[in-house]
Every structure is written in C-alpha cells, then in structure tokens.
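Deliverable D4.2, example record:
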Amino acid sequence: MNEPGTLNPSPLSSLSAEPEVSARPTETDVPVRPAVSAAPPSPPRGRFARLPHLAGRSFIPVGLFARLPLAMLTVGALTLVTSSTGSYALGGTAAGAVGIGSAIGAPVIGALADRHGQRPVLLVAAVLNALAVLALIGTAWAVPEDGSFPAALILSAFLAGGSCPQVGPLARVRWMALTARGKGKDADRDLDTALSYEGTADELTFVLGPALVGILASVVAPWLPLAVAVVMTITLVPAFAVHPTHKAVPVRLIPGANSAPAHAAGTSAKSSRAARIHAAVSLPVLAMVAMGTFFGSTQTALSSFSASFATSEIAGLLYAVLGVSSAAAALSVAYWPRSFKPAARWLVSAALMAGLAPLLLAPDSLGGMVGVLLLLGLPVGPVMVTVFAIGGIVAPAERLGTVMTALASGIVAGTALGASVAGQLAQHAGYHAAFAVPVAAAGALFVLGVAAAAVLRKHTT
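Output generated by the structure prediction step:
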C-alpha cells in the first residue's frame, strides 16, 4: 500500500518495482487516531491526456522522433545518389532498393521481436542500420566511372532499408499491451486513442522527414540528411528500446517448435483455425499495400500535375496538404462512438475515400487541387488507424509484432508499386492517366473492407 499522502504509482511502475514491506507501529505503541488518507489522484479525463499516464511522459516524444530516420531514408538515398552520380535512374534504383529492403526486413524484425523481445532486437537493429547507412554514404561517392553496375551501392541501400528499426509498428504493439491492462470500454477507448495518435505520428514524420532531407541537402550538403539519420538512429532508437514500456510486451515462444505431435483430429482443427487467421491477417496487409499504392501514385501524379503549372518541386507541398488533413482526421477517431465498430469504420471511411478520389481528375489549377487534397485526406487517416486496429484484433498474440510490421511493410511495398505504375502512365499519357492509379487503389480499399467485414465477423464468433 502507499503511505498516506503519496501518489499512486504509474501503470509502468508495476513492471519493475517489487512490493515493499514497511514496519508500522502497532496499536499498543501509539494512540489510536482517525486515519487521514489522501485520495489517489484520478487519471486525466482527456482522451489524449491519458496516453502519458499509461506509458510515461517520455514515451511519446522518444517514439515520435525515433521513427523519423525511416521517413528520411528513401528520399535521402534518392537525393544523395542522384547528386553524387548525376543519374536520376541510379538514384531511383537506390531508393527502390531501400524500399524493397524495408518491405522484406520489417516483418523479420517484427518476428524476432516477438520471439526475443523488443529491446535486444531494436538495439541490434540500430547498430546494423547505422553501419549500413554509413556504407551507403561511402559507396555513393565511389560509384565506378566505367559504367559498370554499382553493386556495393545497391547492396548497402538494400541493407539500410532491411535493417531499419521498426519503431512505429512496435510502438503500436506496446500500446496494445498497455491498454490491455484496462477494463471494458476504457481499455477500448484508450486503444483507439493510442492508435489515432500513432496514425497522426506516422503522417507527421512522413511529411517532416522528406522536408528535412530537402532543407539539409540544399542548404548544407546532400550527404548530411543521411548522416543526421544515423545520429538519430544510434541515439533515439536505443532510448525507445530500453524505455520501460517494453516490459509490458510479453515474450512468447512461437508455438509448434517444441510441441509434441498432436492427434490427427486436433491437427486438422488447428490447421483450419490457422487458415482462418491467415485469411483474417492477409486482408489488412493487402489493404496497406493498397494504401501505399494510393500514397506512391498520388505523389508521382502530383509531380506531373505541378510541373504543368509551375515546377515539380511544388508536389511536395501539395502532398503535405493531404498529410495535414489526414493527420487531423486520424486524431478524431479517438472521439468516434464505441458503437461504431472497426469493420464498419473501414467500410464507411473507404467508401468515402473511393467516392472522393475521382475528384483528383477534376482540378485545372493549383488552388483547385489544394481543395481536393484537403477533402480527400479526411477519410485517409481513419482508414489507416482502423486497418491497424483490425490487424491487432485478428493477429495471434504471439505474432503481434510480426503482423504490425507486416502492415507497415505493406505500405512501403505499395508506395513503390504505386510510384512505378503512376510514373509510367504520367510519362506516356499525362497526369490524368496517373491519377487513375490512386482512384483504383481507393476502390480496392473499399472492396477489401467488404471482405474484411465478413472475415472479421467469422473470426470474432
């Protein structure tokens, strides 16, 4: 028990503190007096004010800035390699290698975190990633001049992406563990709030990251953004790794490695359940691929669109408009009624997104496009928050980190796919054709939402 007048410990203190036994005077030692006890402070009532109460005040800023290097890596590789070699093709290839490496490496890091715990995996990933990015910086200035393929450069770019610490997905795993300590509606509401914040944090970092790369590369030197990313990785990622919240996530052995052979009937039942789980998990992952396709194709189509009116560099500012409205809408999910279930949220938000996406074909001015992007961003944030929430619902507890990182890698893979397809269409048929890709991606999100509603109903019954 707490002494009278002392504060209640935070939820995190129970992760490491042992119960204390203190000597107290007996009734025969002192006169009996009425007990005077201070009421324990109640948790903050504001939705987002409760998050520091759950995780500790340092968790939010550390988790926010520790994911910034990932947002800087792809654009930083593109900028550095293009500047050092003078080849846009080689710069794009290096950026693509970063994306492919991240898409492959993220689920591996998530699976290792599930098996061995987040702290050791993130600490090792931080060191490996820092070395890989330093190798990328070095090989970018040592590209062969004889026109031969720069294998060392592409390999270092791939390793830089593959080893990048997955702070955002693993932060979501921690929030799920922390909010699971609550009860009933409060726990559900806290999880919605935490995931809303995480969606906004991702949006902000993927807007701020490329902007920071552009400022540092243009004002100082093209290698500086990646050097700054190395410094942030080697300092902030370990701080996130050792934060006490990692203790809230239990380390579970992946079942089946050491288990005895099951009875045939039991094996059949387990196989059927595994098939349902895979179907339930695959739909959110595919949705994130579609979401990434929407992002990548929109960025590329906006480059072609803005080049028709001014310069292609304006595309970054236009895309930031979409990010701002998306981030604001993501925050609003915390205040949506509990009766509005995740499957219904996905359907409604994706339907709105699919209905608004064709407006991208309409503007014939920069001002008109700004208005469309502000409007279109409103359903984007809620779709992302909801898909991550559904991923957490359908994921087996022992593979939660794997699923969360797979969702994040789906966005990366989809972004590369969308940028590639939209780039080809923009090159040969103009920006109107390129905008057809995000329209199709939004439609795919709605179709996947319909399928997920049916699968989720079976999964939860």
